[in-house]
Every structure is written in C-alpha cells, then in structure tokens.
Amino acid sequence: MSTTFQLDTSTSRANPTPQPMRRLTVPKIRQRKVDGVTEEPLVMLTAYTARQAQLLDPHCDLLLVGDSLGQVIYGLPSTIPVTMEMMANHAAAVVRGSYHAVVVVDMPFGAYETSPKDAFDSAARLLKESGAAAVKLEGGEAMAETVEFLVQRGIPVMGHVGLTPQAVNVLGGYAARGRSDAEAEKIVGDAKALEEAGAFAIVVEGVIEPIAIAVTEAVSCPTIGIGASARCDGQVLVSDDMLGMFERVPRFVKRYQDLASTISDTAAQYAQEVRDRSFPGPDQLYQPK
Ligand code: KIV
C-alpha cells in the first residue's frame, strides 16, 4: 500500500500518487444515506499518527482519532484518563497525514458533559489545534442539547450510542448492550434524539444485531457500526485490532493481519544479527572514497 505514496526525501513528506481528489466533507458523508438507504457503505478506521493516516487515508471515507488511543498508544487501562492534549496532538498528526478522508476527533471524557458551553470550548479547541472537521461524543438523549448547541455554532458532531466506553464505570464492563426491551428502546431513542439534534452520523457500538438494524432504520443520518451489524450504513474498527497488533481479539474484530508476529519476528532477527555482528553489513556502511 505504500506504493500509493512517493516520498519527498528533502522533507520526508509522503505525497499521494496519483494526486487525490479533494478532501471529502461532512455534508458529503451525510448525503451518502438517501431515503434511508446507503448504497456504498461508509468506511471508517481509527488513526493516531501521521504515517498511519497516510497509509489508511486512500481507503477510507472517515478517519477517527478515537480516544481508544488511551489503550492503543498510551497503554492506559481505559479511555477515562485520556486528555485534551493527547486528542489535539494526535488529531493534528492525522490531519497532516491525510488528504482525502474526513477526520473526526473524539471528545475525551470530562471535556463536554458539564454543559453545552464547556462542550463548545473543548470542541472548538480540538478543531482549531488539529484542523479536524468534526468531533465525536458519547451519549444519547442526555447529550442532545449539547449536540444541537455545537451544530448550530458550526461544529459537526458524530454521535455514539450503545456500548459507550467512557461510561464503563456505570455500565460495569464492555458487554454488548440492548438485550433487554428497556435497553433496546433506550438505544433507539438515544439515536433518534441525536439525529434530531443534528448529528451527521452515529456510531452504534456493541449492540445485539436487531437493535443495530432498528437504529439504522430509525434515523435518516448514517449509522456506523462496530460490533453491530453489516446492515449499518458503514463500519469502523480500531486499526490496530484489525491489523493484528494485539493478541486479544474481541468477538467483533476481524484480524486481517498478524502485525504483532511480524514486528516481534523482525526484532528477533535484528537482535540476532547485532549479536553475531552480521549487521551492519557492507551495504549499510560508509567507506572512504
Ligand atoms: O475510540 C474509538 O476508537 C472509538 C471507536 C471504537 C468507535 O470510539
């Protein structure tokens, strides 16, 4: 896939080849669902670094700078400790590394729940410091007023319902949601409230499949599933999960590669060659003229 880029050796900038079309926009994403139907599903992956963004961007409609970076990049136990600084810095790197996809940045826990004004201040800071096009926040009906406040003031919002990882301490874990009638009804109601508030798309995470389908049929904006249903209007995965960077594979993840083994085997080979002095070899050495 790196053949889609040409490296400018003076700047280390990876320029796409061929030159990409203009960057997609939030309205273009919203318009992909027409009269309840999304002909071509939306493709979203998480990205946290510039190089990762360069490699994923040509294949994606949306890149999500998820607060999953807490666990994936920083080795934190959950998304709760993730800060605004982390989100702004990684989002700026992803914007610098992408040309095509809409970049969406997660609002971290504690940055938006207290009031619509606090949410606006946090969202504005993230967009100003990173150049991302939209924010994502977790929560349904309880966040609808905030979503409306942001959208009316120029900040596109992606919603997130079902299993909302920032609420892990209330939910008691990461189990799939929507198994009881009351829970199922609430998830559909949450999604409708977000749509009415102006969310341009909604992530539906970790719900039993019939609920994911019910949400997708209930709202006119696109739904993006993760552990949800192929009948959602799009899909998202944490890139590092999909690439096989971790041994633990949740049910909803398909491991398309085994990068963990590739990296480990490569490091072992390097270590061996250093220890037996076969690296560096003649090709890697400078000789006198
Ligand atoms: O933080 C994240 O990566 C997410 C996706 C899993 C939807 O919110």
Summarize this, please?
The chain has helices spanning 26-30, 50-56, 69-72, 84-96, 116-130, 144-152, 168-171, 181-197, 209-218, 239-242, 259-275; strands at 5-8, 13-16, 33-34, 37-38, 42-46, 62-65, 102-106, 134-136, 157-162, 201-205, 223-226, 234-237. The chain is an alpha/beta fold and 289 residues long.
Task: Walk me through the structure.
This protein has an 8-stranded parallel β-barrel, surrounded by 5 helices. The protein is globular, with a radius of gyration of 21 Å. 36% of the residues lie in helices and 17% in strands. The protein is built from 11 helices and 12 strands. The mean pLDDT is 95. It is α/β, with parallel strands linked by helices. The longest helix has 17 residues, at 181-197. The protein binds 3-methyl-2-oxobutanoic acid (KIV). Residues 46, 64, 66-68, 106, 203, 205, 226, 236, 238 line the site of 3-methyl-2-oxobutanoic acid.
| Proportion of residues in extended strands | 15-25%
Regions with pLDDT < 50 over 5+ consecutive residues? none
H/E element string?
Answer: EEHEEEHEHHEHEHEHHEHEEHH
So what's the overall shape?
A: globular
Largest sheet: 8 strands, parallel, barrel
Could you say which structural class the secondary elements and strand pairing correspond to?
Answer: alpha/beta
Q: Which whole number gives the mean pLDDT? A: 95
Helical content band = 25-40%
Compute the CA-based radius of gyration.
21 Å
Strands of the widest sheet, in order across it, are: 5-6-7-8-9-10-11-12
How far the N terminus sits from the C terminus, by CA atoms, comes to 37 Å
DSSP helix count? 11
Q: Strand tally, please? A: 12
Q: Could you say which small molecules are bound to this protein?
A: 3-methyl-2-oxobutanoic acid
